[in-house]
């Protein structure tokens, strides 16, 4: 294709969602089919040095997961994106600044329950990008009898911890739900996960 006036991407937004830092955008007005996008980012400690994001060069998608491309999760960054089509390139459009550490939004953990004779073992897994595995994620766990408002709380467990609960005295349908926690400048937490319920000491 020859030289075309390519309008820049719109609604360029850097957002933090489900443990990840993601740049999103919408195609510019009248974008031709087959247009691709290239993303770069700069961090507040090195302004005017726009770093390349290899997996978001000439991408057909309208988002770019920046989490593991960032050189420092504790410094504010912003990203920019432009449209490319043949030899035509749109102007760059920049996002606002954000930093992973204080802006991260958490997704609820996924619970795994192992029922034994007199106990239940509950573990929580998190949909984490690999580069943030070693940050100190924690979770809170709630346990209650189905239909009751009275919740027993188990708080501040580290991500890899398993909570073991003695079930000798529990009879009936019991439910579990958890939320992810992260201590940055203030304590952040996710929504509680959808309840997972199990019948305990059910005879018959």
UniProtKB/TrEMBL annotation:
Protein name as annotated: INLR1 protein
InterPro entries associated with the record: FN3_dom, FN3_sf, Ig-like_fold, Interferon/interleukin_rcp_dom, Type-II_Cytokine-TF_Rcpt
Gene Ontology MF terms: cytokine receptor activity
Superkingdom of the source species: Eukaryota
Chain ranges of the Fibronectin type-III domain: 8-103
Cellular component GO terms held in the UniProt record: plasma membrane
Gene3D superfamilies: Immunoglobulins
């Amino acid at each position: 294709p020859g030289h075309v006036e390519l309008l820049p991407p719109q609604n360029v937004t850097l957002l933090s969602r489900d443990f990840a830092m993601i740049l999103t955008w919408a195609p510019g007005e009248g974008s031709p089919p087959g247009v691709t996008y290239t993303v770069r980012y700069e961090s507040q400690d090195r302004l005017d040095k726009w770093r390349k994001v290899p997996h978001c060069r000439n991408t057909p998608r309208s988002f770019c997961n920046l989490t593991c491309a960032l050189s420092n999760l504790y410094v504010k960054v912003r990203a920019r994106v432009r449209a490319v089509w043949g030899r035509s390139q749109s102007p760059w459009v920049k996002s606002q600044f954000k930093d992973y550490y204080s802006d991260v939004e958490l997704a609820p953990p996924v619970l795994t329950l192992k029922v034994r004779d007199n106990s239940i073992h509950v573990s929580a897994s998190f949909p984490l990008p690999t580069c943030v595995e070693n940050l100190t994620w924690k979770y809170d766990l709630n346990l209650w009898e189905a239909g009751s408002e009275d919740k027993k709380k188990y708080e501040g467990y580290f991500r890899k911890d398993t909570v073991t609960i003695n079930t000798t005295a529990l009879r009936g349908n019991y439910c579990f739900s958890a939320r992810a926690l992260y201590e940055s400048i203030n304590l952040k937490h996710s929504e509680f996960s959808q309840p997972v319920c199990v019948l305990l000491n059910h005879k018959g």
